[in-house]
Amino acid sequence: MPADFNGTWNLVRSENFEGYMLALGIDFATRKIAKMLKPQKVIKQEGDSFTISTTSTFRNYFVQFKIGEEFEEDNKGLDNRKCKSVVTWDNEKLVCVQTGEKKNRGWTHWVEGDELYLELRCEGEVSTQVFKRA
Ligand code: VLP
């Protein structure tokens, strides 16, 4: 039985988001705003099909995928770089590899108790975000 990510999740803490944004080349002004945000994620999971909407007072981002099926990701409103993404299961974790201009880019989601974790990776930087059920 894979983990159940369904639900509405609010950011409660984050580590090294600044480092991740720097690795992505996000400009100073945008980073100053982005690091103050408390985004909300709404995840819908039906078998191996997922939608993840991340919303905030500043920008929103939506992604839709099926496990194991590569898709074009535009990262619109984030760094706007296109990449080819694929999400797979690693036991109970969802692992996304984002192949493109940036090396070692991707993310991992997992649930621990009532918390949703998101590890964001780019080049040598790793940021961890923790969300709680709304
Ligand atoms: C861009 C980099 C902040 C910073 C400026 C905009 C959308 C997995 C995945 C969904 C993400 C999180 C994106 C963080 C990139 C910041 C606007 C923040 C709100 O989540 O849940 O594909 O990629």
UniProtKB/TrEMBL annotation:
Position of the signal peptide: none
Which keywords does this chain's UniProt record carry?
Transport
Origin superkingdom: Eukaryota
Keyword Transport belongs to the record: yes
Q: Which Pfam families match?
A: Lipocalin (PF00061)
Q: What positions does the domain Cytosolic fatty-acid binding proteins occupy? A: 7-24
Q: Which InterPro entries match?
A: Calycin (IPR012674), Fatty_acid-bd (IPR000463), ILBP (IPR031259), Lipocln_cytosolic_FA-bd_dom (IPR000566)
Q: Which GO terms describe its molecular function?
A: lipid binding
Recorded family membership: Belongs to the calycin superfamily. Fatty-acid binding protein (FABP) family.
Q: What is this protein called?
A: Retinoid-binding protein 7
Q: Top-down, what is the taxonomic lineage of the species of origin?
A: Eukaryota, Metazoa, Chordata, Craniata, Vertebrata
From the UniProt record, report the name of the gene that encodes this protein: RBP7
